[in-house]
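Long-time lurker, finally posting.

We've been working with M23ase beta-sheet core domain-containing protein (Ignavibacterium album) and I want a structural starting point before designing mutants. I don't trust myself to interpret raw outputs, so I'm hoping someone here can both generate the structure tokens and explain anything notable. Sequence follows.
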Amino acid sequence: MVKKILHIILILVSTLLIAQDTQLEKKKKELENIKNELQQLQAELNAKSQKEKRTYDSYNNLNRQSHLISKIISNLQKEESIKQTQIDNIKKEISAIETEIASIKENYAKYVASIYKYGKTSELESLIDAKSFNQAVLRIKYLREFSNRRKSDIERLQANIAKLSEAKLTLNNQLEEKRKLKEAKESEITELNRKLHEEKKLLSLLRKDKSNISKKLNDRKKAEIQIRNLISKLIEEAEKKKEIIASTEKKISDKKITTDETDYDIDLSTKNFTSFSEMKGKMLWPISKGKIVTQFGEQRNRKLNTVTISYGVDILARGDLSVKVVADGVVSAVEWLPGYGTVIIVSHKGGYKTVYGHLGEVYVNEGDKLSTGGLIGKVGETLEGNILHFQIWNGRQSIDPENWLRK
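Top reply, 14 upvotes:
Generated this for you. Predicted structure of M23ase beta-sheet core domain-containing protein:
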């Protein structure tokens, strides 16, 4: 009986062991399949990451090209304006000379009419009418000199007209070249915008990709550092220039140099600007009907489990894309920064500065003086939509714009 029971137990154990071996083999095979699937997914992820990087870099490069060509177009427009002003001035000079020639001819005609009226119509009559030979000689000499001087004046003025006309022709040719070049650059901008649109469509598929978000965050960190460094550089340059001006003005007051020697072409004075510090809580928004979508300070990314610092706010544009300067100021810099695209920095009274990023169009140049509410550009397109990045700095310290913008 005992033997029979042991035999049954042995059979059960053997069956159990066989079942366990089968289950183990099944799990091993399942594990192997999972490993193969993971390798395949990793390979696909690596390929996708490379494609994302190329697409992101391509988008940034196209954006930078667009920024640089926009600068070229802006400079060409300035040159066009200068050439047109020169042409207009030459036209005025030619008109003035033509008026002078007409006046000379008119005066000479009056003189001839006067001689005819009193019966002295020729040198011979003037000679006969003279009371003495010497008087006759003087009359003839005077008539000839008058006629020669008139002829010489007209020839000189006509030569001036010829030179001015030639200069006008040259300027017109240069103006036409500038216009053609500007048209070519505008065509390039159109083509770049088409490519940007295509790249944006590609990138829209990558918005949720971890590596792309990580790349964007890294670019943003770099851009924040660049903005901080740029503002520090602007402050240092402004301080150096102030020292130069102060030194020059001291020399003037000490009469060591004349005012003709003070040819500095910088104007750092902000005393005529409205007070920036008094605008706290009442400040104009840089875009109308905007909505803050990223706040100032620490930003936690749950997907990547990272924390970044935002030195400003992101404002979503709804409808009107126009960007306005929030206070009187002077344009300190127009730069392109990775993660923020085209950026404008404006200096204000009291050492304050404002930063406007993600601009698609720029309407100002470095050194331009601006009034509150003045149009400086348009919001560009980012992966999240039409978003303006806006910062306020007091010296080297960034401050929360939400405390300054009117509610």
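Before you design anything, note these points.
The longest helix spans residues 2-117.
Confidence is low (pLDDT under 50) at residues 5-24, 119-124, 251-268.
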